[in-house]
Amino acid sequence: MDTSYLNQILNRFNINEDLIDFKPITAGYINDTFLVLKSEIPVYILQRVNHNVFKNVSQLLQNIDRALLKLQASDYRTIKLLKADNGESYCKHEDSYWRLMTFINDSTTHNTTTKPKIAYEAGRIIGRFHNLLQFESPETFVETIPNFNNLPFRTTEFNEALIRTSEDRRQIAKNEIEFATRSLSKFTPFYNSGLPLRVCHNDTKLNNILFNASNEAMCLIDLDTIMAGYFHYDFGDAVRTIVNTANEDEQDLSKITFSKPLFEAFIEGLDSNASFLSNEEIKLLPIAAALMPFMHGLRALTDFLNGNIYYKVAYENQNLDRCISLFHFTKLAFQNEEYMSEFIGSKLKKLN
Ligand code: GN1
Ligand code: MG
């Protein structure tokens, strides 16, 4: 996409300015994102929403607009979506859907961290997000991707991919297929425990949190998957990307860690805003720290078996590398289950 094409999109949002430059942000696996710069200063974030993944962009933006109305507080920075020439928070241009957000000055994201302060802040802001949305009815939010974080559904997809895939791919991924198959039953009690549905972000990896220059968390970004879910999904996604100091596709498994100082800081931050959680929810947090890396690993494995049709991949085996890495962290989370229970129990348990 060249500059003149991207400028046409900006025109749809009533922005006709000179000296605009675009810088692609390539970290995402789904949407196409560009930083819009004016005289080298970032002013907007322009995104093409992946319409194959998010089938109903209009409803998706309605979810976001709705959540943003509640995500307003002195300690929570609200993202602003600009209106397009159709009066909506997005526009359709040719076959694509686009949206534009204001860039928050001096904001930054972290793919990984070694700083307890960042882990604490991530816990605090995720708690605040839930706290602000706790009285919204989850069923009034549209499911932007049906069964997105639903392990039984992801298992069915995996089993179908296993049947359809080539013998080659099945061989290459032999160990991961075996680990997936034998681990699935460990999550059955979680899905049988009747947890309450909440309005969740559903993709709370660390780099979906905006920080300021003093390492304070400002808000969550990438709101496409705001919809019903269990708090555990947001908890587990944060743990897998904060407590592990390596990237999620790290190939050197010795670099994948379960850092107790980072875990503890994260829980302490969460504790500052966790009064909405019930004791039943608190009890099941440790298993969620294994569930989320496992489910992401399974989704990556499924996509590898399907020939990389869902995630954008930078090289042929990237989905398999992500799966190996995510399953490795899953094992570390299982090993630390008892430790997590004890620490969480000592911090988050309610008196009632
Ligand atoms: C995808 O594109 P990105 O990075 O925002 C995925 C998330 C995963 C993430 C990384 C809609 O998000 O669930 O956490 O990759 N989003 C979707 O594994 O599938
Ligand atoms: Mg996303």
Question: Can you tell me about this structure?
Answer:
There is one protein chain. The chain is an alpha+beta fold and 352 residues long. The chain has 13 helices and 9 strands. The chain has helices spanning 3-12, 57-70, 116-133, 151-164, 167-172, 174-183, 188-191, 231-242, 260-271, 279-283, 285-305, 318-335, 337-348; strands at 20-25, 32-38, 41-49, 91-93, 96-102, 198-200, 209-211, 217-220, 227-229. A 5-stranded antiparallel beta sheet has the order 1-2-3-5-4, covered by helices on one side. Strands 6-9 form a two-stranded antiparallel sheet. A hairpin with a 5-residue loop joins β7 and β8. α3 (116-133) runs antiparallel to α8, α9 (260-271) packs parallel to α13 (337-348) and α11 (285-305) packs antiparallel against α12 (318-335). The termini are far apart. 39% of the residues are buried. The model has no long low-confidence stretch (mean pLDDT 96). Bound molecules: 2-acetamido-2-deoxy-1-O-phosphono-alpha-D-glucopyranose and magnesium ion.
